[in-house]
Amino acid sequence: MPEPIYTSREPFVEPESTVLVICCSSNAFLPYTQEFLERQLGLGPGSYDLLAVPGGPQFLLLTEYLPKFAWVGHRWVKFLVERHRLKRVIVISHEECAWYREERFVPQFLQKFGVGKSLKDRQREDLREIVHALHALGLPISVEAYYAEKSSDGKVHFVREG
Ligand SMILES: [Zn+2]
After folding, report:
1. Per-residue pLDDT for 119 more than 90?
2. Which residue of 9, 23, 109, 144 sits 20 to 30 Å from the alpha carbon of 35, by its own alpha carbon?
3. Domain 19-160 coded CATH 3.40.1050.10
4. Contact, 35 vs 79, CB < 8 A?
């Protein structure tokens, strides 16, 4: 057996989780997301299952354009909810998400930019559709959606979208 190179400060515990958080893996937004979860929703580190992937919960809407992505995502969500008996799913998108600017994943024809419609509007619409998509999985869960955006004072606001 090789010698360990690091040992945790605290002994291992396996806390109970009833919450799944699906958010973007963006290194810039993740710390604020964790702060929001802890300070506003009372969900400290280790108290929720985390699915942090590029674009966050947007993969749930790719059933037609990238069905394999959507299939994998649905499997992850179902696996976690069923295996851990989760009751509550929290989805969070953020402003300036690079995933949305990536033509390979969110092509122009799916971007739905209409007159006066911004990327923010598109993301907020997506969040509402994501809530429907999660309910359509038929799991016994409640769903909450939030949008993180930079405010004029340089901080990050979280607003509820559904
Ligand atoms: Zn992102």
Report:
1. no
2. 9
3. yes
4. no
Q: Which residue, chain included where needed, has tokens 């606001």? A: 157
Single-letter amino acid code for the residue at 4: P
At position 103, the amino acid (one-letter code) is E
The single residue listed with the structure tokens 């809407």 is: 61
Ramachandran class of 56: left when φ > 0, alpha when ψ lies in -120 to 50, beta otherwise: left
Instruction: List, for residues 62-81, the tens digit of each pLDDT value.
Output: 877 788 888 999 999 999 99
pLDDT digits (tens, 9 = 90+) for 26-49: 999 999 999 999 999 999 989 999
Cα 132 to ligand 1 centroid, rounded to whole Å: 21
Residue 115 CA to ligand 1 center (angstroms) comes to 24
pTM, 2 dp: 0.90
The structure tokens listed for 103 are 């033509």
Give first-to-last CA distance, the chain, whole Å.
Answer: 50
- Distance (Å) from CA 94 to ligand 1 centroid: 6
Kind of pairing between the strands at 156-160 and 142-150: antiparallel
